[in-house]
Amino acid sequence: MAEAERIIGTPDIPEGARAEQEQPGGNARPDERSGAEVARAPAAGSGADDADAGDTGGPAAGRADDTASSGAAEPAGGAAARPRGKRRVAVLFAVATFAYALDLISKMIVVAKLEHHPPIEIIGDWLRFEAIRNAGAAFGIGEAFTVIFTMIAATVIVVIARLARKLYSLPWAIALGLLLGGALGNLTDRIFRSPGVFEGAVVDFIAPKHFAVFNLADSAIVCGGILIVLLSFKGLDPDGTVHKD
Predict the structure, then answer these.
(1) Is the pTM here over 0.70, yes or no?
(2) Residue 185 · residue 216 · CB < 8 Å
(3) In a 3-state reduction of DSSP, which class is residue 115?
(4) Mean of the per-residue pLDDT values for the chain?
(5) Is 218 considered catalytic here?
(6) Helix, strand, or coil here: 153?
(7) Which residues partner with 120 through β-bridges?
(8) Which position among 189, 204, 237, 245 bears the catalytic label?
(9) Is the dihedral of CA 165, 171, 222, 214 positive or negative?
(10) Does residue 204 carry a catalytic annotation?
(11) Which of 30-34, 151-155, 209-213 has the lowest mean pLDDT?
(12) 20 to 30 A Cα–Cα from 39, which one of 4, 19, 45, 48?
């Protein structure tokens, strides 16, 4: 065979074509390329594609990171805390000032115009104005514990003043204002009226039929207490939050 081929000879092939055939991966068809060349081509292209993907996906990745970080900054429960509104300290002290001033003025008028005088009938025998000195608590209860009631009133005033720092509920501000004004009104009598400091007798003058004699400070305390009980039953807290037990 070798001798026959030598005699017959090989077809004339141009030198350039022969060089291209001998060179790996020349102008051969894609299906004729070696497996190594095919493997190298996608690898090179994938690097460029990865670079393009990195350029395109960069902002998206940044946004995703921002979203993740903002989600981590949210309060527990996944929702923002409910704003509680304005603090109601001004309302509390306005109500307390009004209740205290009304009680103080009424007692001054009673002492000046009604004490040592016959009672004044407002609605027949059902309601009279009669000046009485009360050494006990509201409605004449516990006359032997004047100092204790004085200390209780002072403690109530301090507690209400401390509670005012986290007061955001308007109904609670009104209720505590009534309590504060009433406590201050009776405490003023305990301190400045006879027989002495912290033992002074409170001036009472409202005398309903078949009921104890009281004053406006007692009325403010009772109204404030009733309002607090109603607010507690409705689940409203002084900071404005509502809970259901």
Answers:
(1) no
(2) yes
(3) coil
(4) 73
(5) yes
(6) helix
(7) 129
(8) 204
(9) positive
(10) yes
(11) 30-34
(12) 19
